[in-house]
Every structure is written in structure tokens, then in C-alpha cells.
Amino acid sequence: MESVSTTSTTTSTTTTTTTQGICENPQNNGNGFCDDNNNVPECNYDGGDCCGSCVNKEYCSTCACLDGGSSNSFANNLNFIGNGFCDDGLNNAECQFDGGDCCGPSVNTNFCTLCTCKSSGW
Ligand SMILES: [Ca+2]
Ligand SMILES: [Ca+2]
């Protein structure tokens, strides 16, 4: 009798899932809203959204400026306040509700998605 020996090889693949080194929501970088989960080096510290004198804190809890204060974000561009275009990221109390750009009879919505009039004082 001939004996047949069968060798089976099992290959196990280990998949490690890590978020380190990955920017999970790059679409939120520099959108004018401080996002804690984007406030990491991989995301360029949320594009600077968490720094400056005019930080929108609606979607963050820590809201810390971690990039050393380099203001490179849309939210910090105070020139956009009261420029006639409604900017969601500037539409908060810290930013004087975008200077009233999101309120009134003729709101320019080219640069906003929410475009909510939040202040009745304008
Ligand atoms: Ca952001
Ligand atoms: Ca504006």
C-alpha cells in the first residue's frame, strides 16, 4: 500500500486597523468648523479651524488650538465677515454671525450650505 501524505498550510493574515496617520474626514478640514477628530497632524490640525479669534465650536468639545496658532483657515479669515456672502463657519456669536451676511432679504448662498439666519439683530 502506498501512503499519501498531505500537507496543508494555513496562512493567517492579521489585519490591524488603526486610525493613526490617517485623516478620517479630510472633507471637514478648513470648513470653518472646529472638528476635534480632525485636530491632528494628519489632518493639518483641521486646516486651522480650531485656532484664531473666531472659532466655530458647534461640532467640537475640546476645541483646542493645537497647531501653534498658525491661522490658515477659512474660519479665521475675518475679511469674510460682512462681505456679503453667507459663510456657515462664521455664522456664530464669536464671529458676529458673519456680520449678518446670512440674514436679510437677499442672502448670497454661494459659499454656504446651511445658510441659516441665526441672529435677528441684523
Ligand atoms: Ca473643520
Ligand atoms: Ca460672510
Fold and architecture overview:
The protein has 122 residues and is low in regular secondary structure. It folds into two domains: 26-76, no CATH class; 78-122, no CATH class. The protein binds calcium ion (2 copies). One calcium ion is lined by residues 28-29, 31, 33-35, 38, 46, 49.
Provide a brief overview of the structure.
This protein has 122 residues and is mostly loops.
Q: How is the secondary structure organized here?
A:
Elements: no helix or strand
Bound molecules: calcium ion (2 copies).
Query: What percent of the residues sit in helical stretches (DSSP H or I)?
Result: under 10%
The end-to-end span amounts to 97 Å
Overall mean pLDDT stands at: 80
How many H/I helical runs? 0
- Low-confidence segments, given as residue ranges, are none
Q: Tally the structural domains.
A: 2
Shape: elongated
Could you tell me the radius of gyration in angstroms? 24 Å
Beta-strand content bin: under 5%
Structural class by SSE content: little secondary structure
The hetero compounds bound to this protein are: calcium ion
Oligomer: single chain
Largest sheet: none
Count of strand segments: 0
